[in-house]
Amino acid sequence: MTPMLETQDVARHFDVSRPLIQRLLAREGRRTLRAVDGVSFAIPKGSTLSLVGESGCGKSTVARLVVGLYPPTRGRVLFDGQDLAAARADRRQRSRMQMIFQDPYASLNPRWRVADIIAEPIRAFGLIEGRAAQMERVGELLTQVGLSPLDGQKYPHEFSGGQRQRISIARALSSNPEFLVCDEPTSALDVSVQAQILNLMKELQARLGLTYLFISHNLAVVRQVSDRIGVMYLGRLVELAPAETLFTTPRHPYTRALMEAIPDLEMTGRARTPVGGEVPSPISPPSGCAFHPRCPLANARCKAEAPRMLPAGEAQVACHAVEEGRAAA
Ligand SMILES: Nc1ncnc2c1ncn2[C@@H]1O[C@H](COP(=O)(O)OP(=O)(O)OP(=O)(O)O)[C@@H](O)[C@H]1O
Ligand code: SF4
Ligand SMILES: [Mg+2]
Whose CA is nearest to atom 25 of ligand 1? Predict the structure, then answer.
């Protein structure tokens, strides 16, 4: 079956050069930041792929590439088998995908009543004619996300963070999308509220057959919601595996380091062993495998040659040590 979404070697580079006069004075060239640099994955319909990795590894940039907010510098994005740029040009195709952001307050217009916020995509895509019918649909959507139809008359500031995220979800669902890109949808919320929103998202997925690309820096959160998980490091995928496989047999040294750093919630709530060292700059990434300065298994080959994604059991891993069989736990 055609995947809902597929990326083929997709990259997004940003020109972060200083102004010309400063470059001339300092005799420096243009500078390119490789936010995403060759990422390939497919998301089967009705499933959830999560992307995890430290801040700055390119997760939000992938989200923006996948909904067409950024054109790729290289590679292709296919939405239901069709080139994304072509799909975006068609209003009906566009209504099939929506995005949910981290901060529900920033993404909701504070001067609009909730009912109008939720109805906005319905109007923009011309899905339902007439205000009465639109408001009836808004009432249904509010009920679907666990709020009351009467809440439509209120303004965003009258709600808690979790309720506001429910409003964003109702708004995203109002165009009857099949594919939702969720960029850190629960990161701004308390742990207990986070769990409620994640449960709601799973329930909606089962009821409406939704496909999710879910982004989070928190492995514990993605475990709950994912079918498959991709681990990103400096703009690339380093491991892609079914969720349980990733947790039971993490293969890439970076995935293992992330696992070690999962906060021990029952104990202290604080990270146990953070990944040692700083994330290098994506403007001048290390040679070979970009993880080599922080990797306990790095050798000369790692410094010289970038590893490719290769199958390893049910997973795909980009690591020479895994390929050579010297990464056994
Ligand atoms: N529009 C832009 N112009 C220049 N650089 C950018 C732009 N957007 C992102 N970047 C850079 O690209 C890299 C990846 O950023 P991105 O926001 O995708 O990371 P992220 O994984 O979502 O991080 P976080 O967990 O902090 O949200 C970072 O180094 C960031 O500074
Ligand atoms: S390729 Fe080498 S440096 Fe990179 S993760 Fe594997 S062992 Fe470590
Ligand atoms: Mg981000």
Answer: 55
Q: Give the position of tokens 């993490």.
A: 250
Q: Minimum mean pLDDT among 11-15, 42-46, 148-152, 255-259: which range?
A: 255-259
Q: Which amino acid is at 324?
A: E
Question: How many angstroms is it from 24 CA to the middle of ligand 2?
Answer: 38
**pLDDT interval class at 263 (50, 70, 90):** low
Residue 75 lies in a domain: yes
Digit-coded pLDDT (tens) for 155-169:
999 999 999 999 999
Rg of the Cα atoms in the chain = 21
- Inside any domain, residue 243: no
For the CA of 52, the nearest ligand: 1
Ligand 2 cavity residues, CB under 6 Å? 253, 289, 291-292, 295, 297-298, 302, 307, 319-321
Find the 68 Cα to ligand 2 centroid distance in Å: 32
Please report, as a single letter, which amino acid is at residue 298: A
Taking CA atoms, 62 is separated from 41, 56, 137, 323, in Å, by 11, 11, 32, 27
**Which atom of ligand 1 is nearest to 61's Cα?**
18
Ligand nearest to the CA of 182: 3
Residue 241 lies in a domain: no
Question: Which is it for strands 315-317 and 236-242: parallel, antiparallel or unpaired?
Answer: antiparallel
Beta strands in the chain (DSSP E): 5-15, 32-43, 48-52, 74-79, 82-83, 97-100, 179-183, 211-215, 228-233, 236-242, 310-312, 315-317
Residue 246 lies in a domain: no
Q: How many domains does the chain have?
A: 3
Closest ligand (CA of 15): 1
